[in-house]
Amino acid sequence: MNISFSPPFIDQNVIDEVVDTLESRWITSGPKVKALEAEMMELTGSKASVCVNSWTSGAIMMLKWFGIKAGDEVIIPAYSYCATALCVLHCGAKPVMVDISDDLTIDPAEIRKAINHQTKAIITVDIAGLPCDYQAINTLLKQPEIQEQFIPASEKQRALGRILLLADAAHSIGARYGGKSAALASDITIYSFHAVKNITTAEGGCICLNLPEQFNHEAEYGFLKVFALNGQNKDAYAKSRGANWKYDILYQGLKINMPDICAAIGLAQIRQYKDLLLPSRKHIALKYCHHFNAYSWFTAPALKDNSRESSYHIFPLRIKGISEEQRDQIIDQLVGLGIVVNVHFIPMPMLSYFKETGYRMEDYPNSYKQYACEISLPIYPQLSIEEVDYIIESVISTVQLHLGISPLKTTA
Ligand SMILES: *Cc1c(COP(=O)(O)O)cnc(C)c1O
What we know:
Number of helices: 16
Bound molecules: pyridoxal-5'-phosphate
Active site: 197
Radius of gyration: 22 Å
Keywords: Pyridoxal phosphate
Shape: globular
Distance between the termini: 29 Å
Number of domains: 2
CATH class of the largest domain: Alpha Beta
Helix content: 25-40%
Order of helices and strands: HHEHEHEHEHHHEEEEEHHHHEEEHHHEH
Largest sheet: 7 strands, mixed
CATH architecture of the largest domain: 3-Layer(aba) Sandwich
GO molecular function, one term: pyridoxal phosphate binding
GO biological process, one term: polysaccharide biosynthetic process
Protein name: dTDP-4-amino-4,6-dideoxygalactose transaminase
């Protein structure tokens, strides 16, 4: 068999929607982006949503929106994709990395230790699709001794009056927290529509706003749409309608708008998300757990508990007691059997750039521990039952052989 890791979901609906865009002769930002933004508000329950050309660019824009600059600190987990740190660096501020809990999400106790007068924001990462402990984090941010440390230095910082909570929801579209959409648990939630994510637009992202009531969401939406288009007050679509050529530049914006040709892909997918795409991922995750639970080397990922439910974006298989080298060997063997797997994530302090700028892996022991025994298995709607069964058999036999246990099932 030949099983890829995370191919995009492209069915006839996607193709039809893209062809419709091409035939309309309007391919950049226009009605499809608007329609995708409306779908995102519906799915996430957010008060406003702005589509952009990546998670990364959206995060840069929102940190700039909040007035983050040199001298500021933003707390992030060490265990994430590099973009979580790079967006902070692009604003001239310092990413302060902290360690994670055993469920792979940022540890609220570590956040508390890292907060000081320079802290302006926290970026939480819903790793693998599992929402962070938002109850603990929101409670922390509202504590008087934490609020007293906050020194507002921009109009938005004064309006919010506390540290901003921005969720990196690149993995967690459709995840639930406290019986509601997980997007409602933070001030700003940013999704990625990169080609490997649960919903894709090839490249893209979406910013969802759930700011407190002192913010006017319609006005913020209007501002962000202009800011995402070089600060230009009329987009090409508006200019194309009649004698509407005159425009103005209002801010030093970014050029990060999403084109309609990309939005069309995501639009066709999001319409099938709740009823087809998300349930089929969940089904595979539960099947993996059901089979692996019989083995003592298996550490089950947190998928659902009393307060939260994952979006089942990644299936992080963790094998108890193995070293990083053993993990790498198991991966080689699985690849040899035709199964492409991955590791989420190489903690940022292990990557050259972050190492050279002073981050040390020893400071994040749990991030290393989790990374060293983790293998992300294929999980996507197009996987057939035979392929899932083959992955399960291959993982069990490979791991058992590796650990020197009989490849046969250990329970009756
Ligand atoms: C994919 C990913 C990103 C970056 O998304 P882009 O849309 O490629 O910019 C950020 N954070 C995490 C955790 C990711 O997995």
